[in-house]
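for the writeup, i need someone to sanity check this before i put it in the appendix. the sequnce is what the collaborator sent (i think, or maybe the updated version? ugh). structure was predicted straight from it, no edits. if anything looks off just tell me and ill rerun, i have time this weekend
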Amino acid sequence: MGALALAGYGWLRERPQDLPWTQLDLADPIGMFTGSKLAGLTDDFDQCRALLDRAGVGYDAADAVSRPDQPQCGYSDGIELSGGDEGLDLSPGGLETACPVAAALMKWKWDVLQPAARRHFDSRVAQVIHLGSYSCRRLYGRESGGWSEHATADAVDISGFRLEDGTRISVLEDWDGEGARAAFLRDVRDGACKLYATVLSPEYNAQHRDHFHFDQAERGASGRRMCG
């Protein structure tokens, strides 16, 4: 029994990504606690920026946004990712998101998105097409009720992709199809579920028929995650 415990301890020591108390490193493989550690960066902008710096990610810190008339809206931890190998080419450009969302996007690019593109198309993703991040609004644009993670730029909506070989993949047009495009979309959705607190797709409801919603909602000690 002792030998088994020692073997288990040795295995865990070699997998810091599967331990809740180890420091997050974007160079490590995705582990059991990678997503919760990313979401936990919401209140620590300095640590999130240091994480990006260690990984060599190109970015600019964004100016803080506040709404005195609507204190539930705004952000002070905004990041605008650069393009190229050390960043993420986004269309339209100039996207600002909360830092934990940006950090997860980079991890998603390296460990999920590009491997899926190589596997299904023998190509690379050249551009990720999005519908924006920050929007001062409540859930589903309602006049009352809870506030959307978009209200603090802690969410991003992804609508499609363009590959280096020119192939275009659309959530709206290809999710219900057959073959490589639909399989690719499901793979990148499933991979995002390991990195974000919430991932919603056309499988979740009609409001998401044309995009993936990724967010880093903090859900306290439960660490509950939502993937649909």
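The chain has one domain: 23-62+74-227. Residues 139 and 148 are 5 Å apart (CA to CA).
thx in advance!!
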